[in-house]
């Protein structure tokens, strides 16, 4: 098993193969429930004795202003990017658990998928309190505990909004943000999550209350960063302004849908926020729950796994717009064949080109499907401006900046 993290070439040459995978060995107290040396599941940064001597640091040349370097993992080919303009490095492809974990696939298949992802350099695992009514978090937590991977080698994100049936168990009140995250951590069997997302905006909760609650859970060590999901650009900017006004912690990223047929937000609205306030994008549903492939030959049957139990998705796929989109998916086949890839790999690689996109979340039902989708990383370098222009011409839906 080999998993790469973002390192300099010099460090990679000087470290052993096991250290390249995992970093230094954990001391007593390390484990899945919390970071090494943190005690009681607290995040890294506190405690521990100061070493008597430190090796001299080798200065590195400064990066150009505004430039954040992308690195490639040795042995896996996975690419790593900064989460927005934070210092957190995430794999450009992450693994999502919506629809699949705790629902459409068995726990054994979920473990196979997560293992393959980790071994291929994926370090970002996304879930939510609402996914399969909490079962997705439980499944993910059980697998992480059984694998025994170093907590510092992967990133776990969860989303808070829909937690239960009671009026106080949903929304973004201070009460639910704190209690909802504590419930997620219990199901995940973790001391902290790396990122907690506000899983939609909440008109019933004042923005100051939301930002203060997110700052609180970070200060308490329950999360390291916070972000937004399905928020509008104006709402994200309001949260950022509120944080700056009251010396609180601003969001670092927005989680949004982005695919060939849903482009406006990620391609027009979010890049401006990325450049102005450093908010990056973690995008999801690049294949529209499996509908953007060529395997249906332009038609989506009633037996399609992606639409089982999701009537709204079935209606959308079988609408006039859905049928037109399926026809355009088939039009992409010649381009995919020319690049030596599948339509799914082409569609995912296309999403990775987005300005300010830190990671694209994949949802898969098998390890074999995941391996195919991970091949999109190799396709990315083949997407020349000419190829992208050709794709835009076929789709006919390129959004125009309002600048």
From TrEMBL:
This is NADP-dependent oxidoreductase domain-containing protein. InterPro entries: K_chnl_volt-dep_bsu_KCNAB, K_chnl_volt-dep_bsu_KCNAB-rel, K_chnl_volt-dep_bsu_KCNAB3, NAD(P)_OxRdtase_dom_sf, NADP_OxRdtase_dom. It holds the Pfam family Aldo_ket_red. It is found in: Cytoplasm. The gene is KCNAB3. Residues 93-394 form the NADP-dependent oxidoreductase domain. Residues 1-14 have a biased composition (Polar residues). The keyword Ubl conjugation does not apply. It comes from Felis catus. SUPFAM superfamilies: NAD(P)-linked oxidoreductase. Coiled coil: none annotated. Residues 1-77 are annotated as: Disordered. Gene3D superfamilies: NADP-dependent oxidoreductase domain (3.20.20.100). Keywords: Cytoplasm, Ion transport, NADP, Oxidoreductase, Potassium, Potassium transport, Transport. Residues 28-49 have a biased composition (Gly residues). Belongs to the shaker potassium channel beta subunit family. Signal peptide: none annotated.
